[in-house]
Amino acid sequence: MTVPIAVLDCDLLLYGRGHRTLDRFKLEDVTDEYLVSTYGFPRQFIYYLVDLLGANLSRPTQRSRAISPETQILAALGFYTSGSFQTRMGDAIGISQASMSRCVANVTEALVERSSQFIHFPEDDASVQQLKDDFYTLAGMPGVLGLVDCTHVAIKAPNAEDLSYVNRKGLHSLNCLMVCDARGLLLSAETHWPGSLQDCTVLQQSGLRNQFEAGMHKDGWLLGDNSFFLRTWLMTPLHIPETPAEYRYNMAHSATHNIIEQTFWSIRSRFRCLDGSKGTLQYSPEKASHIILACCVLHNIALEHGLDIWSSLTMGQMEQPEEEYEHMESLDSEAYQVRKELLITHFS
């Protein structure tokens, strides 16, 4: 005798048809304050994301109660910004663990697909010059095209044998290489590097280095700390400054480069799933990398919409990262000459 197998909708089974889910939730019924406190963003920003991602999130489905794009976005934003485990956030908004996972996955992939649209270096001459002018205004450092640094995001151990993700603190992490402008807008983000790799190794193997070595970004340089090698396109501080010009250069370098530390702080403050206080990202390295990149995309979209978290929080509360790198000596004589000319021309 054949026993029929019923395919059950898990949300229907758990909550029933009459349960108030986010598909019945109306943004017009609540205040911006509620939306910001629960999902991290105001109403108009959420509407923008629905317009931006709606086509990706409205794929055909066999389920009778397909989750709307608006619901998927709210669920994903709740996870990104709260750092809560999916089961807890799913319970709070009235969808199951399985549905919560689908929402986060769908929205994450839709944002990752648009990463090149929102994270990129300026291309036209006027925008590149404005980029340099903005940096020069900060502390008098000329020719700067971006600030580069790495930050680690904790992830679960992929498996007991794989030590490539164990960082120098003995924790599993992804080492993320990022570049930002003077406002903290990300110009480049590579979020997939194993935590065991040193910052200089990540940069050496990165697509970012390939761009600069190929001359895609001419007549300027990045600013990086002493965890990187000095290059013609990457200016680092002097290890032991001796002259007044060298001290002035180091001070201008430090004041300018500090913006990327503020940017890391801003991203972690807004997207609590990345800050480690709620535990590690419970995903494979690939999926965790995509979640980090999705948050980077949202960070840039938020800045473009005037949602600057720096102005809403006291910067004095920012914890300064521990200096863990070793001073990297470069054998690039051309790079030394470029920095020497910079010292003579602008800081003597």
From TrEMBL:
Its cofactor is a divalent metal cation. It is found in: Cytoplasm; Nucleus. Pfam families: DDE_Tnp_4 (PF13359). Keywords: Cytoplasm, Hydrolase, Metal-binding, Nuclease, Nucleus. Residues 148-300 form the DDE Tnp4 domain. The keyword Nucleus applies. InterPro entries: HARBI1-like, HARBI1_animal, HARBI1_dom. GO terms for molecular function: hydrolase activity; metal ion binding; nuclease activity. It comes from the Eukaryota. GO terms for cellular component: centriolar satellite; cytosol; nucleus; plasma membrane. Transposase-derived protein that may have nuclease activity. Does not have transposase activity. Belongs to the HARBI1 family. This is Putative nuclease HARBI1.
